[in-house]
Amino acid sequence: MSPSFREPTTTTTSSGDSGDTTTISALPLDVLTHILSLLDGPALASASCASSHLRSFSAHPLLWRRLCTSSWPSTNHLPLSDYRSFFSDAFSALPLTTQSPPSLPPPPNLISAVDLRFNNHPIVSTVLQTETRSSWFLTSPFRIDALYPKEPPPLPPAATRSGSTIAAELSLSWIVVDPITHRAANLSSIRPVSVQRHWFSGETQVRFATILGRGSDWVQCGIVVTCDVYCEGERGNGVQVREVCLQVEDMDGMNLNGEESLDILQMAMEGKRKRRREEERRERYLQYLKRKMERKEEKMRREGRLDTACLVSNRRRSQPFDAAFSNFENGADGPDSSLSSAASAPGLSGYGGGEEKKR
């Protein structure tokens, strides 16, 4: 376990009746730097609060750059100026409730740093740039595809697990970066929230997701990793990544367009952060699915009531026509009876005969 620097910053050793007090500043510079380089992000942040001396050393850019590149290898290709601020944004979790609409105009480009690992071995590490000002991006369904530059490593030969278990060992980080404000947000749940096989292709789809609030509704920033999982075949045990894509969908399961998605991502990048708890992200995803199902059922009930009301209204509207049609079939008010009664009227029956007599 990494040291937390919560112990006092002075140590006392006694020799006889005298005692010597040594501060941490007495440590050689290279020793202190080496100790700090072994800490993870939260421990390094705690160390900076222990003393002013540690604060000055803990803020060194090289320490935070090493943390960023070891946690997310794709950051080696990012032009970052403040690695400590980037780590704080990307490592922390996003709250469910978002802030008010973005105060700044959308950036001309959206940067994505994608890192996919299997058993803690990097298999995808890439940086993407998406142009955000074209009409095609703003009006089309939002989707960003990540390419994979190298073959993923196979599983150890001793592994004899099912495909779903193998796929569940994937971990993903998808960090979006605003190149103007240099704010960042990690849209991935780190660990999968669901693993399922596609009904047609048979490929395994591993889903990572972060749920964000938009007013009274929730939206899902979903990342789907499509892969082939092979167990104990000619190629051994392993996973072959086919596709990695990011999409944003609403409570009705509809994919949002680029303009709507960009607003949500901006609010996420500009918003507050909270302590990361991976199990909380899966719980939030399950709550999202529950609310989504309840919304669908309520919509079906509402449409059912509307169909019933329309059916009753049409039935009432058609009753006079049904009665008239029934009388017509019975001959009560048919056209033949009308003509016969008209022909037998006194005024009309003698009209022709009177003309003949005058002639």
Q: In summary, what is this structure?
A:
Keywords: Coiled coil. This is Putative F-box protein. The protein is of the alpha+beta class.
Explain what you see:
This protein is α+β, with helices and mostly antiparallel strands. It contains twelve helices and eleven strands. The strands form three sheets. A five-stranded antiparallel beta sheet has the order 5-11-10-9-8. Strands 4-3-6-7 form a four-stranded antiparallel beta sheet. Strands 1-2 form a two-stranded antiparallel ribbon. Helix 4 packs parallel to helix 5. The longest helix has 53 residues. The chain is elongated, with a radius of gyration of 36 Å.
The total of helices stands at 12
Q: Which strand order do you get reading across the main beta sheet?
A: 5-11-10-9-8
**Rg, please?**
36 Å
What does the largest sheet look like?
5 strands, antiparallel
Order of H and E elements: EEHHHHHEEHEHEEEEEEHHHHH
Q: Low-confidence parts, pLDDT < 50 over ≥5 residues?
A: 1-18, 156-160, 338-343, 347-359
Oligomer: single chain
Number of strands: 11
Please estimate the helix content: 25-40%
Kindly state the mean pLDDT as a whole number? Answer: 77
Q: Span between N and C termini?
A: 131 Å
| Overall spatial form | elongated
Structure class: alpha+beta
How much beta, percentage-wise?
25-35%
